[in-house]
Amino acid sequence: MTNMTTQQLLKSILTELTSIKIRNKKTHANNMLLQSCRERLVRATYPRTNDQAIMRTSLALLIFCFALSSLANAQTPKTILGIFAHPDDENMIGSVLAKYARLGHHVYIIIATDGKDGTRVTRIPAGDSLGAIRQQETICACQKLKINPPIYLHIDRLDTKFGVRPYLNGRKKTIEELKKHIERIQPDVLITFGPDGEYGHSEHIVTGAIVTELLLKEGWVEKYPLYFPVDIKEDVLDNDELSYIDKKYINLKIVYSDEDKQKMIEAGKCYVTQFTPEEMQEMSDVVTQNKANTRYFRRFMVSQKSRTEFWD
Question: Are residues 124 and 56 in the same domain?
């Protein structure tokens, strides 16, 4: 017989499993769990006995370890960070954000500006009061999506409406603040606007360009995978200003549930300063009628192959 009873061995393994899970919440948990199980089981049984009952128990415990390690790996939450220009921009992928929050992952959004010049619908004048209200609207939307509260950078604008120097100062501050937040949050996935800015919006384009520039500058392209939400031509109406890309450049399709879609609709209702009741209803109808429940993305990738000519 071994120096450990089966009960003691099981307790020892479970203790080891628990400690390893705590130390490795994000990476390598699966391999370490398996290694620990194998070492303890082999050391505690096979070298010391040929008893078939003990060996069968050891085999059962090894299978148990495989099952627990797979469960631990499956339950390890990932972190998603979306970076947008204005309050309400995040809801362009609201269903996707809601999906991953529902699955237990950590979902964060960063909003670069307060949107205090967004007076298309509201009678509230442009300025800090409107910006404060729009921040509350985003908090409301995040609650509906069940994601973490928004992070604001409080940049005035990311265009040249008030001059080139204010824009350059805002751009510099945005890069500095984003670097701090990304290093703190350590996201597994980044999401922001592609070069089209969704529909050509200048601040969307600048926001996406800043995120892309930051990854290139810091050598983070592989460390923080970046995805751009994209549309395909079939989904763009003739009178719609949305941009689209050829299907062959899509490398990620996220399918979400009707529940996630409903959360997106409810989140949209938070933005009373930006959309009329009629516009909200129209958007709700469009989202509801779309039965595909699919959002397309394109990953930002850079080839590290070095060449000496533009052509082969």
Answer: no
Please answer whether residues 32 and 16 qualify as being in contact, where contact means their C-beta atoms are separated by less than 8 angstroms.
no
226-230/106-113 β-pairing = unpaired
Q: Are residues 38 and 130 in the same domain?
A: no
- Measured CA to CA, the distance from residue 82 to residue 110 in angstroms comes to 6
Q: Write the pLDDT tens digit of every residue in 225-250.
A: 999 999 998 888 766 778 999 999 99
Q: What is the CA radius of gyration of the chain?
A: 25
The pLDDT tens digits for 63-118 are: 666 565 555 555 699 999 999 999 999 999 999 999 999 999 999 999 999 999 99
Distances (CA, A) of 289 to 211, 262, 284: 33, 12, 9
Quick one: which H or E segment has residue 67?
A: helix 52-75
Count of domains for the chain:
2
Q: Is the pTM of this model over 0.90?
A: no
